[in-house]
Design goal:
Subcellular location: Membrane
Shape: elongated
Organism: Campylorhamphus procurvoides
Strand content: under 5%
Pfam families: MARVEL
Radius of gyration: 26 Å
GO cellular component, one term: membrane
Distance between the termini: 80 Å
Number of strands: 0
Membrane topology: Multi-pass membrane protein
Length: about 160
């Protein structure tokens, strides 16, 4: 029998988990624009601006639906600019966040919200042939021909 001091068992492991510091693999400065993520952010800003302009230029026959489309377009546009500025000005190196995961979550959430906005805008566009007032003798449509074309462009 071995004495207690001469035990061959190792000490128990430290129960505190070890998390390595987050690594930023996306470049900072203007180099972010040469990556796929930077190109997607620039496209989100560009197309978000176009959707914002197109939806705002039509009469809003269904405020609840198109209000959500405008909310998504404006919010995604603003957040895309903020997200791009974080990398352009080098704040990504100063904030300890897993930027690869944050980038993936940001683009995934933006896709889901834009897809929902697309469905609502397409639903509004599909109602163009209905009259604005059902009990009226005038056959004024919900969307005129010009607004219908703008609404199609905003949907796309």
């Amino acid at each position: 029998m071995l004495p207690r001091a001469a035990s061959s068992m190792p000490p128990p492991p430290n129960p505190a988990p070890y998390f390595p510091p987050a690594r930023v693999t996306l470049p900072s400065g203007l180099e972010i624009l040469r990556t796929f993520s930077g190109a997607v952010i620039v496209l989100e800003i560009l197309f978000g601006t176009i959707v914002w302009i197109l939806v705002a230029s039509t009469q809003v026959p269904l405020p609840v639906l198109q209000g959500w489309v405008m909310f998504v377009a404006v919010t995604a546009w603003f957040l895309s600019i903020v997200f791009l500025c974080v990398f352009l000005f080098g704040y990504a190196n100063k904030i300890a966040v897993n930027w690869n995961q944050a980038d993936f979550i940001f683009h995934g959430a933006t896709f889901v919200f834009y897809f929902g906005a697309f469905l609502l805008q397409a639903a509004t566009t599909s109602l163009h042939h209905f009259p604005r007032k059902f009990n009226s003798t005038a056959q004024e449509r919900i969307l005129s021909g010009h607004e219908y074309n703008i609404s199609i462009a905003a949907s796309v």
